Amino acid sequence: MTDRSRNKAAEAMRAALLGASLLAMGAGMAPAQEGGLFAPRMVINGQTVTNFEMEQRMLFLRALRAPGDPEKEALDALMRDRLGAQAAKDMDISLTAEQVKQGMEEFAARANLTAEQFTEALAQEGVAPETFRDFVANGLLWRDVVRTKFASQVRISEAQIDRALAENAKTPQVQVLLSELIIPVQGEDISPVLDQARAIKADSGSEAGFASAARQFSAAPSAGRGGRLDWVPISNLPPAIAQQVLTLSPGEVSDPIVVPQAVVLFQLNSISDLESAMPAQVEVEYAQFALPPNLDPAVVRQQTDDCGDLYPLARGLPAEQLRVTKQMMDAVPQDIGLELAKLDPGESVLRGRGTYNELLMLCLRTGIPEADPNAAEIPVTTAESDAAEAEDKPLVDREAVRNQLGNQQLTALAEGFMEELRSEAIIEER
């Protein structure tokens, strides 16, 4: 693979997984604990997790743009891997090399890459091939454990499907009132900023405390308001971040969330359910305009009411200086998604990008609602036979709902089993 194709593969991986370029940590990441890379970081039922494994899992999670505190998430994930592998051994469950290879190919295919291309792209982020292989293998082992132990227990009745369809039809829109605190990352070593964010979270015992910290440490425009934001529909947020926000209680502060060039904390101030239906997915169209030095950002913002107004200003500039992108919200880079969540169509925010300023404008936000299971389907037909066939076609795919409910049950049983394994394990952190 040439340097050019490696770079192309890396870009494809980033765009497909969550669409973000990221800072390689490399040598800038310190070992998780003192004592050397291969010293124990954690011992689980006599099996060791090393500092090297911790560092590698943190790099891997960052390459996938996984939300949350990287060290905390890596430690928990490796603990679950060990417990799951031990359970598999107790149940005489094992994998062949071919199964692991196929699993790696399936995982890489989510980014439209082969396993080899995906491994090459990860290597550019400092992730060893063995880390990717072990991640896939442990996931496959745990899946087989769960299926072997619980699949026969999952039974979905017709009444459960009916209730699920009724609930989906009246899903409320959820809005959240948040405060934010954004700490920029300088250089490649994110560890000091993560430590600072953890300390701020520990010291922020109230809304007033978080507001004071935001005024002092946040680089966001909201710092002067103590980080306070307006009400935001939860569907406007990047899905991975929305999931974290919804786990908070009012007044609680999130774990640090790593986004490109920054670490973010959120405090949930309030949550509200409205009567309107919540869209299943949100699609956004947004413009990124790299402003040339001769354009005053304030003047540009005064002259632009929508994305169409940007094109005359970009006339004669290289094409890459004005990019308009249309994406589903779960594919938007998290740092961009956080800014777009605060904007209405036609509104913009100015972002410093090192050597230049970027105008980020929301062009359009479109909610794609769940299909109403109670709505009548009106087929377009060209013959009587087509009409008869359409009449026989079910309005709702009940088997798809059954599978969804079954997976939810299986996930709940799996989480309960994992907690049981964790409670019975002897775990020592170093």
Description of the structure:
The chain has a 4-stranded antiparallel beta sheet, covered by helices on one side. Strands 8-7-10-9 form a 4-stranded antiparallel beta sheet. A 3-stranded antiparallel beta sheet has the order 2-1-11. The chain folds into 3 domains: about 5-150, Triger factor/SurA peptide-binding fold (Orthogonal Bundle); about 170-275, Chitinase A, domain 3 (Roll), CATH 3.10.50.40; about 280-370, Chitinase A, domain 3 (Roll), CATH 3.10.50. The chain is built from 15 helices and 11 strands. The radius of gyration is 24 Å and the shape is globular. It is about 45% helix and about 20% strand. β5 and β6 form a beta hairpin.
Please name the CATH topology of the largest domain.
Triger factor/SurA peptide-binding fold
> What is the total number of structural domains?
3
Class from helix and strand fractions: alpha+beta
Mean pLDDT: 82
Low-confidence stretches: 1-33, 371-395
User: What is the string of SSEs from the N terminus onward?
Assistant: HEEHHHHHHEHHEHEEEHHEHEEHHE
Strand order of the largest sheet: 4-3-6-5
